[in-house]
Amino acid sequence: xxxxxxxxxxxxxxxxxxxxxxxxxxxxxxxxxxxxxxxxxxxxxxxxxxxxxxxxxxxxxxxxxxxxxxxxxxxxxxxxxxxxxxxxxxxxxxxxxxxxxxxxxxxxxxxxxxxxxxxxxxxxxxxxxxxxxxxxxxxxxxxxxxxxxxxxxxxxxxxxxxxxxxxxxxxxxxxxxxxxxxxxxxxxxxxxx
Amino acid sequence: xxxxxxxxxxxxxxxxxxxxxxxxxxxxxxxxxxxxxxxxxxxxxxxxxxxxxxxxxxxxxxxxxxxxxxxxxx
Lengths: 193, 74
Fold this sequence. Notes:
The structure holds 2 protein chains of 2 kinds. By secondary structure, chain A is an alpha+beta fold. Helices cover 37% and strands 39% of the residues of chain A. Chain A is built from 3 helices and 7 strands. A 7-stranded antiparallel β-sheet of chain A has the order 1-7-6-5-4-3-2. In chain A, strand 6 and strand 7 (118-132) form a beta hairpin. In chain A, helix 1 crosses helix 3. The longest helix of chain A is centred in the last third of the chain and has 55 residues, at 138-192. By secondary structure, chain B is mainly α. The two termini of chain B are 27 Å apart. Chain B: Keywords: Disulfide bond.
């Protein structure tokens, strides 16, 4: 069993990061995630939003390999449970693979919180527990997987920055469009004089 | 982003748009009013459940009749 942990600071406030995390996929840094579905969602008595989601991922094997072993066998499915607490400002996600469970188990946990020293920043704490089952060299393979998870976590953070930029661009474009629709009648009113 | 059920992607997009708007403009701002997306979710959810059953995906805690969850993937 291998445990991997990491901490990262985003230079954006918690609400921005949480909105982006909720819309993380698709993004160019995580091309293997090809499907995200909401299985269930509800707000609990304390006002926290619970979501259960299914992530469909593809190993990225060359298409010739996929055509031999069949498409369904190269898909890995991950189930994720998340809780957003808008009062405490926490967004916590836990996920685990639900396929290939006889071979490997990858459990991940992420918590996004405002940075304790700067409310304009957000702290992400991540951990993964990896278990390769039933074969020797398992600790070696676990080490490789931990290193892959570390690389992917870096990509995941880049992905978050990408989503945040995209959301900010959309907001700017909406503002420009709104100003444009005001300017046209105003310009017409001026030229009519 | 696509849905696991190819036919559900459009329903998913409509639901996601509704949810993301409510999430950003109401929920995160402390507005406790219920989300207006339940009907959209219901349609989308029905579609996804069917796709999950058809693809035999071992989702836990979701109504899933007739699949053998102990089936090992190899």
